[in-house]
Amino acid sequence: QVQLAESGGGLVQAGGSLRLSCAASGRSINYYGMAWFRQVPGKERELLAAIIWSGSNTYYADSVKGRFTISRDNAKNTVYLQMSSLKPEDTAVYYCAADTSSGRNWPGTPQSYDYWGQGTQVTVSS
Questions:
Q1: Residues 6 or more apart in contact with residue 85 via CB below 8 angstroms
Q2: Tens-digit pLDDT profile for residues 78-126
Q3: Which has the closest alpha carbon to 27: 118, 115, 111, 105?
C-alpha cells in the first residue's frame, strides 16, 4: 500500500552532520506515525526517533537525544532525520518505518510498524 525509500546515507567524519530522507509513495502518510530505526550486524534493531502523524509530538532514544531531529513534511510525503555531532557508534543501517494505526502504538517497537524502507548505510569515521 505504501512504499518507503531512504536516501542521504554515506560516509561522514565524527562530529559531522548528515540528513536522511524517507520518501513515501503509493499513498499518503498523513495519518501514519513514522519512525527511524537503525541496526548493526548481530544487534537488535533500535528505535531512534518517532513522530506522531501531525508532527506535534516526537520521541528520541537516549542515545540520540540532542543530536538527532526527526521531522516530517506531509505535503511532500516525506520524513527526515537530521543527524548532528555524529559519532563512530552511530554507524549502522538506518531504516524508515510507518505505523498505519495513526500513532496508536507510538513510539512502539519494530513489530508496531507495518511498512519499512530498504535502509541506507551511515558510516561515521574517527
A1: 15, 17, 67
A2: 999 999 999 999 999 999 999 998 767 779 899 999 999 999 999 999 9
A3: 115
Q: Which residue shows C-alpha cell 567524519?
A: 13
From CA 76, how far away is CA 58, in angstroms rounded? Answer: 19
Question: Do 33 and 106 touch, CB atoms closer than 8 A?
Answer: yes
Q: Over the chain, what HEC string results?
A: CCEEEEECCEEEECCCCEEEEEEEECCCCCCCEEEEEEECCCCCCEEEEEECCCCCCEEECCCCCCCEEEEEEHHHCEEEEEECCCCHHHCEEEEEEEECCCCCCCCCCHHHCCEECCCEEEEEEC
